[in-house]
Structures are given as structure tokens and as C-alpha cells.
Design a protein that fits this description.
The protein is an all-alpha fold. The protein is built from eight helices and no strands. The chain folds into two domains: about 45 residues, no CATH class; about 90 residues, no CATH class. It is elongated and about 55 Å long.
Length: about 180
Amino acid sequence: MTGNDFIIFLLSDLLNGGDITTVSREYLLKNLLRYARGQSPSLDAAFGLTYAGQRRVSTQLITFNRDLYLSRAAEHIALDARVSTWQRAGRLADELSKLLPIWKKQYGRGKVARPDPEWPIWRRMLFMAWRFDSSIPCTQRRIYDLLQGINGYSFQTGIGSMGRVAPYIGPPRNENLV
């Protein structure tokens, strides 16, 4: 278990309102003892949160929320169930190529923005995905891969999943956009 995995499991345990699971308790105790005995220079190092190449938990949760909104946009961009995931990804990519330049200009860095309630649901969801992470996938292939689950996330809300914790991580500056 990585340090980030532990943080997600522990947050999930706490948000569940129940007891901390044995896995979380053992990991917490083992690493606190490592730090207390001087075997680790910092708590971050003791919990494995400081090594190169590791994405921060907050970054993982922001990406998770972005992907969740993008998948909701894909659901609503075509009401016909016969439209394939590949076609939905293509429609989203086409729309993003038109909308991103406008959104960047109108709602760029530091500007508080909410999706227009008059917009179709898919556009509001797409806007939310962009507000969570402006490095949103823009090509049909990348969107398709994301929708197929290649990104490795589970949108389920089971114990220890990102889906349990992600709703508590708001968009930038905790804006409530929808």
C-alpha cells in the first residue's frame, strides 16, 4: 500500500462514520512508530508521501472528479443508447475544440464561473470537468480511453475507493458550480 492509498482508505473510513478498518489502523500505527523511533526524518517520509513520481492525493481526487464529470457529459451528449462510446468521445472532442477557447477567454484563471443553467446538461457537465482540471483530455482517443476505464479509477463508492472521498474535494477554491 502506498502512502496515498493509505490516505484514501483512512479518509474513506472516517467518512463512513464507522470504525477505522484494521488495515488503516495497522498502517497508521506502523508508520507513526517508525517516525517516533527516529527511523524516518518526517511524517511525510514515514507514510511514503514524499518519493518522486508520486501524485498527491489531492491531485488524484481532482482528476477523479474531472473524469467523473466528463463521463456524465458523455452520457448526456447523446440520448440514443445506440450511440457508441467512440462516437460520444468524438462528439465531446468536437465540442471541446469549439468551447475551450471561449471558456479560457471568458472564465480563465482566477475567475469564478458557474455553468449557465440554460446550457444542456452535457455542456454543464463538460464545463465542470474543465473547471476541476483545465488539462482535460481533448482528443477522441483520450476521451474514449478515459470512458473505457483505462485511467484505472473506480467510480464506485465502495470502501476505500476514490468515489467515497472525491465528493468532499470541491473544484478549485471549493466553488459550488452546479
